[in-house]
Design brief:
This protein is an alpha+beta fold. The protein is 39% helix and 14% strand. Helix 3 (118-128) links the parallel strand 2 and strand 3.
Length: 152
């Protein structure tokens, strides 16, 4: 629109559009990277934000992915007669070794049978989680990668 009217011909307009096409492409890439950076800054290690980031990446439609807080159960011990401790143990539950305090995970990511690449999920959780926290991923349908022998 800044061209004088006598220069507004189809060849000159096509030349100018082709001349500014790389600048438009670079500007679009910059805007996309800027939006990605703002998205990463808006989401933190908090449970609700990490769930939102996982659902945005892997389950946009149903949003079934949940984060379950880590269980920190105390161990129950059976004492000998010499220790003179109570013998009644009450109701006991069998738990995995990871579920007890200081041996297991700080939180569990329940993927709700969403199909995704395991390494992508681990990378996203590692990006947002606090340093030093441990996590477990359950109910993930893993995408099988094709190898050269699979295609032959």
């Amino acid at each position: 629109m800044l061209l004088p009217t006598f220069l507004r011909k189809s060849k000159i307009i096509a030349f100018l559009q082709s001349a500014i096409a790389p600048v438009v492409h670079i500007h679009d890439e910059f805007n996309q990277l800027r939006l990605d950076d703002h998205y990463k800054l808006d989401h933190t290690w908090q449970k609700c934000y990490m769930e939102a980031a996982l659902n945005d990446m892997f389950d946009l439609d149903e949003r079934k992915i949940r984060i379950i807080e880590g269980d920190r159960y105390e161990r129950n011990y059976i004492y000998t007669h010499a220790e003179q401790k109570p013998k009644y143990l009450g109701t006991l539950f069998l738990r995995r070794a990871e579920d007890y305090s200081d041996t297991g995970y700080d939180f569990t990511v329940d993927m709700a049978n969403v199909t995704a690449n395991q390494y992508d999920v681990v990378a996203l959780v590692n990006f947002y989680k606090l340093e030093g926290t441990r996590f477990n991923i359950i109910n993930l349908r893993i995408i099988q990668k094709l190898t050269l022998t699979d295609t032959l």
